[in-house]
Amino acid sequence: MTNFAGKHVLVAGGSRGIxxxxxxxxxQAGANVSICARDPAALEATRAEIAALGVTAHAVSADLGxxxxxxxxxxxxxxxxxxVDVLVNNASGFxxxxxxxxxxxxxxxxxxxxxxASRAAAPFLKAARGSIINVSSISGYRPSxxxxxxxxxxxxxxxxTSSQAAAFGPEGVRVNAVAPGSIEFPGGSWEERxxxxxxxxxRVLAAIPFGRLGTPxxxxxxxxxxxxxxARWVTGQTIIVDGGQMLS
Length: 248
Fold this sequence. Notes:
Strand content: 5-15%
Strand order of the largest sheet: 3-2-1-4-5-6-7
Distance between the termini: 33 Å
Helix content: 40-55%
Order of helices and strands: EHEHEHEHEHEHHHE
Structural class: alpha/beta
CATH superfamily: NAD(P)-binding Rossmann-like Domain
CATH topology: Rossmann fold
CATH class: Alpha Beta
Number of strands: 7
Number of helices: 8
Radius of gyration: 17 Å
Shape: globular
């Protein structure tokens, strides 16, 4: 059910963390993959990992807060790969605080990049009867004093996913989302907080029944399921993937 041989997958924010694991997961399942991100070094490293799996690997350095760079990446990726079967909107500006700058980052990258990439990919997705997966967060389900802007834009993505599903459904395109809990990986924010903010880290850790933070691969596996024929009757849903963190 997770055989994507011959399929064409685009992953926004695909150079590290969750996005990297999603891109590699699709490549391991046989898909040709295009990724974009801002950091050229991380982007090239992940592109090389994808190519080593024997599939077409395409990468573009882009600032997804800039409209033309979003659509340019999608159009170029579709031309190189030969279409679009799956679009994963994973990029985040990580605008956390209640400031003009953080609100702008979150709205431009988390929200408008999702809107713009989806619009640009729509003709290809409709032709392929493909799917979109948006990456939200459990932060979108509850108030946040620490990261109000981030929580709000992630809540917006949950709502927009259902609106997209209703709009694209008649065209045979499914739209779903995942809402990860706290995910730890080398170089990521939670690894950094383990030493810089141990009280916060340990408070979050104590809220997870399994006693550990999640891994990027655990999010990628759910994304692959949502894009696969096993989820062919699933659309408009946001799947929480948090090891029970929301239960506390």
